[in-house]
Amino acid sequence: MDINKKKTDQADKPVRHIIALSGGKDSSALAVYMRGKIKNVEYVFCDTGEELKETYEFIRKLQDYLCTDITWLKSERDFRYYVDLYNGVLPDARTRWCTRMLKLKPYEDFIGDDPVISYVGIRADEPHRKGYISTKPNITTVFPFVEDNIRRDDVMRILINSGLGLPQYYAWRSRSGCYMCFFQQKREWAGLLENHPDLFEKAKSYEKFDPATGERYTWIHGESLDELAHPDRITQIKLEYEKRKSREANAFKGNLKLKDIWDGDLDDSEELACTICHL
Ligand code: SF4
Fold this sequence. Notes:
The chain is an alpha/beta fold. It folds into 2 domains: 3-173, HUPs (Rossmann fold, 3-Layer(aba) Sandwich), CATH 3.40.50; 186-271, no CATH class. 42% of the residues lie in helices and 11% in strands. It is built from 12 helices and 7 strands. Strands 3-2-1-4-5 form a 5-stranded parallel β-sheet, sandwiched between helices. A two-stranded antiparallel ribbon has the order 6-7. Helix 1 (25-34) packs across helix 6. It is globular. The two termini are 20 Å apart. Bound molecules: iron/sulfur cluster. Iron/sulfur cluster (SF4) binds next to helix 4. Iron/sulfur cluster binds at residues 48, 91, 96, 98-99, 102-103, 177-178, 181, 183, 274, 277. It holds the Pfam family PAPS_reduct.
């Protein structure tokens, strides 16, 4: 990809080149892949304050690898402030105020009115995904992995060859993002309970039941974390996950190209998930 061909409308101002890191595998691999290809690249991490410690560890590891500072962006207000502001209504895939207030706003404030090329790690095997495309006219979004046909296996190779490997949470979770993200699958909630019981409790503390209206504010539609945490329910969730994996493995036999697309533990919410959080 010839970066020099990318232009913005504000030719008189120097163009800033920015890679936003989520602490996930694709944005991290993009930072490694683009190293040396762009001059004066800036790396940023939008910290919601509700990230896993494994994410922070991986961002620091990446910073050491890149031998440069990663700018840590944070909203002036924390997640609890916004939950209270929205009267206890938790964010969901439709409203996703958390992404807007805790990720996008700090990112856009950091950019200001400068002409920016924003590099996004959507892969060539993710045609269904949409990147964070800013409506700000001074931001041009580019997708180097799509342009260079970099797929999931390539991303894995980039991370392994760099010595970074994968963030540790991939052992029980399929994507980056806040520990209480509503885009999680139920088996990931079960993973949170097993790996970070304290954070599971913290996520539970955000759920509310209004006895006056009967309204339940839960992370998962129709099920509270208290209900999910019941040992029988956890066993059931794990069994269902194993069955699904086995169904998928059989379905994809003989169609390796399709398997390449779906092998990332994709579920329905993946298409909706915010790329600034989950790449
Ligand atoms: S990771 Fe999930 S909970 Fe966190 S800001 Fe993004 S969408 Fe919201």
